[in-house]
# Entry
Amino acid sequence: MTAPDIISSLQNSRVKQVVRLRKRKERDSVRMLLVEGYRELLRAAEQGYKLDDLYVCPEWFLGRNEDDLILRHEDAGARVHQCSREVFAKMSYRDRPDGLLALGPYLPTSLSELPVVPGGLYLVAESVEKPGNLGTLLRSADAAGVDGVIVADPQTDLHNPNVVRASVGTLFTVPVAEASTPATLNWLAANGIRPVATTPDTDTLHYNSDLTGGIALVVGAEQYGLSKAWLDGSPLLLRIPMAGKADSLNVAAAATIVLFEAVRQRNCTQFSS
# Structure
């Protein structure tokens, strides 16, 4: 690692820029996102995501591998800036910083760039409002090996730092697109992908449903569920059986359950044609 400049003033213009980027308006104006944390930046590096600026504070490091990761990003073109403990605490959006925070370009989110995989497994999240839920959906999608995630009629910013954080960096590992519901339905139909909608208003249980072949599991906001467009446009509606008093699950928990049922079916012969 080359000897970085050391930022020690809270009035430094770079410090002010990082703080401003917590607001969506500022991020959208320059199309830059904040990435904070070792695991997040490691996954970014593994996927070839190129940073513009990397801010480091060795006093906050939690392990012994930070220098190798910093060098990896620097070799890929990132400008490295060392910060004082106070400055880094000012820039960090975490309760407990780990000394690594970076700026990088927005990811491509066009449907036209989403990979089309014959017989693939996709996840559609309609109007999910909370960054934490969206990030957790991405994390579950990565774990299940989905071929792509579509955020339909987005209500939260995909590049929100809390989405990056909740995804634990899987924002960089899963192909993601943003689109309207009509555009998403058209894309699925054009590519032979069957929408499978989750709703409590059906008798069909998720583990009794055929989730093989090209499908897109569709989940909606917890308060209102899926819109009529998705319920009418999905040939299969399914629900997760619930024995308690709660009438719904967290959207990310529900998606995880059904995604892994789809994975189970794809790894056995019960539903194979």
User: Anything to note?
Assistant: The chain is about 35% helix and 20% strand. The chain has two domains: 5-105, 111-266. The chain has a mean pLDDT of 93.
